[in-house]
Amino acid sequence: MRLVHQTKLFTILLVFLLLVSGCANGASKTNQSAETSEKSKSEPKQGGELTYALATSPDTLDPHRAGLAVAGRVFRNIFDNLVFQAKDNTIQPWLATEWTVSDDGKSYTFKLRKDVKFQDGTPFNAEAVKYSYDRIIDPKTKSGNAPGLLQPYVSSEVINDYTIKINLATPSAAFLSNLSQNQLGIVSPTAAKKYGDQFGKHPVGTGPFKFVSWSENADIQLEKNSDYNWGPPNVENKGKPNLDKLTFKIVPEEATRIGSVQSGQLLAAETVPPQNIASLKNDPKTQLLTVNTIGLPYTLFFNQRKAPWTNVKVRQAVQLAVDVDSIVKTLYLGTYHRAWSPLTPGIFGYDQSLEGASKANIKKANQILDELGYKKGSDGIRVKDGKPFTLNYVDGSPNREKRNDIAVIIQQQLKKVGIKVEINITKDIATVIYKNADYDLYGNSQVNSDPNALRAIYHSRTPEEEAVFKGLTGASNPELDKLLEQGTIEPNSAKREEIYKKAQQIIIKDAWIIPIYVFPYTVAASKTVKGLSFDSLGYPVFNDVSIDQ
Q1: What mean pLDDT, rounded, does the chain reach?
Q2: CATH assignment of 295-518?
Q3: Which of 516, 450, 519, 521 is nearest to 299 (CA)?
Q4: Is 23 helix (H, G, I), strand (E, B) or coil?
Q5: Residue 158 CA to chain centroid, in angstroms?
């Protein structure tokens, strides 16, 4: 066995400047009073409620079934993980105190904290960890993104109450990083068994806040977990939160969301519209907090299950006809960066050489379509074999991050090359995309900590996998499959980085996607809100938050 990590003890040296002892009694009292006042200022205020507006509603608060990043902003506060990933990508202890890895890289043995309990009183132990991970891979759970993160998990063995051995099918260079992600949070076995499919409406974990209620499309209320005393490495306050309550308001309308913060009705709101950035920076009552998210940027995926999208030249023609620079500049006014790759900048393995490597070319797009036999009709729409060239562009509702507006601009751009775009805005993405695959072009993004995230999206899927949950591309490339498989197990960082760069180049060259933008998570908050921070993935962290009023 080789030791990977264990809890370290840090010695903190506090240096005090001592006052000269010859001071008069009156002066001593004055200094003492000043010190007390300064200490009072530095200590966070206790109590109060933070109201935090979300742009969209979570799909569920069950981390194992969740598919939306917005859900993680809520349930990250309810659940904890075995390990924590710092911004420098190092993996640190959290609910696990230390771990070892077998020589073949296929098993991990974790020692667990002994002072943790779930919010319903259930003991946190090795059985709870085993239950959580087995639950994720159980088809009955109908998990969302969690199974892809947990791969190549096979089983868990409870060694004793506070020691667990996790077995993998193959070594995984991404496994520890993935264990830190909120979708792999540890759930209360008692509550999960009690509520079954409704656990997402009654979540119970070991986190700093406890679930209180969820009013559909209105708000989600949490309260402090007074027993909490095992905060992650990135917070100063390892104990119970300063806040009494944390309430997430669902406010899809941009103007209402931001106006409510400026008027004092809400204390914080996410996803600040680009047109409000400048005014908020100059607002003396408001602070603007921004962090770049990492993972997969907002990307448009071609559905290669059906013609004409099985033809790389058709995909390339569309890729050339879409002016991404114009879209990003027009909609986001310089506050978002254009995406160039299936990965975002900042994540391990990102290929910077792809930046600026392609640009819109209407002339070339028209030329390709002409050569493929698509002829323009009298209405300007191309026709082949008697069928007009139409593209079914699907997007979700509400208009998150102006994504519906992207669809409208692309509709206008593709009309210039003779492609008719039919825009289908739906609230039922789960059925339209992941069950029926009824689309030609669909956009999505994903917050993730490791480039292994590419495998869940771009690796070939078996018919059995497709039957349960349709992939976003419907495509297959043996060379790409091999690279993604190698990237999962490669222990050498330099070699692993090159593997992922090759994978990104194939995906772009073969026009599987059109990358659009990198999402900056931006929060407007009252200046009375202190201590709000973000983790390495860009999720808000509330352990240190207090309200100074």
Answers
A1: 91
A2: 3.10.105.10
A3: 516
A4: coil
A5: 30
